[in-house]
Design goal:
Blueprint lengths: L2 H4 L2 H38 L13 E2 L6 E7 L4 H8 L2 H4 L3 E7 L4
Parallel strand pairs: 2-3
Antiparallel strand pairs: 1-3
């Protein structure tokens, strides 16, 4: 008797199901790898360009010829910075030029 003939019907069914699951898993993994490859390629083709500090204009409010220049380092999440903004300080310094920069965290 051959090996196949010795296997019971339940054993053959179990072996077929395992083989089918293995093929399905290999197909899913191959699909994920192909999708990741395309995402990688598209990211490098259409991804956001890198900008240097010289490429980005200064975040400035006010006229260039203002007699007073204020440099502010702030954080949008800071309650103190929010309070400064809500207090209307910008309305009080209309004759100035304000440079705003994100406060370095850490």
């Amino acid at each position: 008797m051959t090996k196949r003939e010795k296997m019971s019907r339940a054993q053959r069914r179990s072996a077929q199901q395992q083989s089918k699951q293995s093929r399905r898993l290999i197909g899913i993994l191959a699909g994920v790898v192909v999708a990741a490859f395309f995402v990688y390629i598209l990211w490098h083709i259409f991804g956001s360009p890198t900008l240097s500090a010289e490429d980005v204009p200064d975040p400035v409010l006010g006229l260039a010829a203002a007699p007073i220049e204020i440099v502010e380092y702030g954080d949008f999440g800071s309650p103190t910075c929010r309070g400064w903004h809500n207090a209307g300080v910008m309305a009080q310094v209309q004759e100035s030029r304000v440079f705003w920069f994100q406060l370095p965290s850490g």
